[in-house]
Amino acid sequence: MIALQVGSSSVSVWSLAKLWWQGELKGDNLELQIFLNLRLPRVLTAFCVGGLLGVAGLLMQVLLKNPLADPYILGVSGGAGLGGIALALLLPGVFAWALPAGAALGALVVIILVFGLSGFRGVVTMERLLLTGVAMSALCSAFVSLLLTFAAEGRFRGLVFWLLGELEGGHAGLLMLAWVLMLLLTLPMARMLNVVSMGDDVAFSLGVSVRSARHRLYWMSALFTGIAVAAGGMIGFVGLVVPHVLRLLLGQDHRLLVPAVALGGGVFLMLADCVSRVALAPVQLPVGVVTAMVGAPLFIVLLARRGRV
Questions:
Q1: What percent of the chain has a predicted confidence (pLDDT) above 90?
Q2: Is 309 a residue whose pLDDT tops 50?
Q3: What is the pLDDT of residue 183?
């Protein structure tokens, strides 16, 4: 309700409800137009993108058995951004579909590269993983900058704003469907996630195919990240902040954590979007800036607590 009402132009949901109850609400009402065409789709987009990023981060943390794993930090969001822009520029005639398809493909390629390179010649370590993720993120950013130099002037501005984190809400209905599909895919895996998080040896002894589980987590993390980046741009640290905080509050049972993170990620990004809309109103900040201001300090604190700084 807060997210629906605050912004550069305030909208009173209660006033609209009262007018509707009294039969005096007309289609040309300015507040109604803002509510239906701008505010509601944007809030729904923020909720779904936040949930997708949160669950993607949770799956990565289970996969790596490390609370510092996150699609943005490990470069997966950067890969999704690079894939989306590359395919959108190569296939401008089907821009609406090329962007999400490229984002999902780019996320998958980068997550495989990061995990493969970090485990090259030995066991995956956190230091090697983080360094590999940072390197891949920098490489993807370089290629993104290169591709943007060839973008048409009319498309350049839109792509830059998308990369910074923009929740236009143009596909809110499809995102709601993706959010529900995410839960349908992830909730049946909750018990398996509990077992895998205990370690590979324990999982193997309990009959879980660790290799198969890893592949499923690879694909699902890439899919959720790709959809989220395609819809909202490169919004960082949602997958780090939300699972970590909820794990401290609710414990380690993924039967509870999965739906909690799906909801909590949506709430977190809705609140961040509220801040981005009102902080410098009528100018709107990219929502990725707000999440980074919250997530980056938390990431530093987590590193310090683990004795890595």
A1: 18
A2: no
A3: 94
Contacts 24+ apart (CB under 8 A), 29-34: 34/9
The answer to which of 19-23, 99-103, 191-195, 240-244 has the lowest mean pLDDT is 19-23
Domain boundaries, the chain: 48-305
Q: Supply 184's token pair.
A: 């349908």
> Could you tell me which CATH number the domain at 48-305 has?
1.10.3470.10
pTM for the full predicted model: 0.85
Highest averaged pLDDT of the listed ranges 82-91, 251-260, 285-294: 251-260
Q: How far is CA 220 from its chain centroid?
A: 13
Q: Could you count the other beta carbons within 10 Å of the beta carbon of residue 37?
A: 11
Peptide bond before residue 286 is cis, with ω within 30 degrees of 0: no
Given a cut of 50, is residue 179 above it in pLDDT?
yes
Spatial distance between the Cα atoms of 85 and 143, rounded to a whole number of angstroms? 10
Write the DSSP assignment of the chain as a string of letters: -HHHH-SSS---HHHHHHHHHTT---TT-HHHHHIIIIIHHHHHHHHHHHHHHHHHHHHHHHHHT-TT--TTTTTHHHHHHHHHHHHHHH-GGGHHHHHHHHHHHHHHHHHHHHHHHHTTTS---HHHHHHHHHHHHHHHHHHHHHHHTTS-HHHHHHHHHHHHH----TTHHHHHHHHHHHHHHHGGGHHHHHHHTT-HHHHHHTT--HHHHHHHHHHHHHHHHHHHHHHH-S--SHHHHHHHHHHHHH-S-HHHHHHHHHHHHHHHHHHHHHHHHHTBTTBPPPHHHHHHHHHHHHHHHHHHHTT--
